[in-house]
Amino acid sequence: MNIIIFGPPGAGKGTQSKFIVNKFDLYQLSTGDLLRNEIKNKTQLGSEISSIINSGELVSDKIVGNLIEKFVSNEAYKHKIIFDGYPRTLIQAKNLDDLLKKYKQKIDIVLKLSVSLETVKKRIFERQAQEKRADDNEEIAIKRYKTYEKSSEPLIDYYKQSNLLKVVNGEAGITEINSEISRLIDTIKG
Ligand code: ADP
Fold first, then answer.
1. How far is the CA of 93 from the centre of ligand 1 (A)?
2. What is the mean pLDDT of residues 145-156?
3. In sequence order, which ranges of 25-168 are alpha helices (DSSP H)?
4. Structural domain for 39, as ranges
């Protein structure tokens, strides 16, 4: 089973991904983590993308596309991926469909975590104290939310049309969300 977890910054995608990975024996593919690793390891790519990420914009579809192909093409992860933070644009969604087709796979469910801008601001403020991410401050958080509304929200209709979309209330408590997600995944597992 391949899963997409989708939602604005601070929606809890990372937290819920880790829960799903453990419970259903999957691999988390977080494009945000992969990109931050490039910056941390001071690679050529890292130096190209750091200012983009720190301004709350999206890295190019091509760069993230290359990063995810390494995962999707790996037999060890076949039908076992949770896509966390990918796709974020319609082009990325179409690229992902093509890529999965190429490797004879598909998406089984898209979980959308819904949260308000107020909650996003509050959570990012709290996370800033713990993780010290360069893009976690109020101004950039608002920018990332706006980027999400503009570039990523069109994906909601895209996945509604293919009947894959399930909306989860991201304002609920972590364990409540865990249960709701487990229930949804169990229904598609049959
Ligand atoms: P959040 O969802 O909290 O904003 P992420 O860790 O998922 O955090 O992403 C952090 C940043 O990394 C994004 O704001 C963006 O600049 C970049 N990024 C992550 N995934 C993608 C993607 N699929 N396409 C383009 N840029 C991405």
1. 15
2. 96
3. 31-40, 44-54, 61-72, 90-102, 117-131, 138-147, 154-161
4. 3-189
Tokens of 120: 């996003």
Dist CA 190 CA 188 (whole Å): 5
**What does the pLDDT look like over 45-102, one tens digit per residue?**
999 999 999 999 999 999 999 999 999 999 999 999 999 999 999 999 999 999 999 9
CATH at residue 133: 3.40.50.300
Q: Prior bond to 8 cis, omega within 30?
A: no
Span 151-181, pLDDT tens digits: 999 999 999 999 999 999 999 999 999 999 9
Whether residue 86 has its Cβ less than 6 Å from ligand 1: yes
| Rounded mean pLDDT, 132-155 | 90
Q: What total number of domains does the chain contain?
A: 1
Decide: 152 in ligand 1 pocket, CB within 6 A.
no
Look at residue 39 in the predicted model and tell me its pLDDT: 96
* Mutation probe of ligand 1 site: the residue of 4, 5, 35 with most atoms within 8 A of C-beta: 35
Instruction: Give the DSSP H or E segment for 169.
Output: strand 165-169
Orientation of helix 44-54 relative to helix 31-40, angle to 10°: 120
State the Cα–Cα distance between residues 115 and 168, nearest whole angstrom: 9
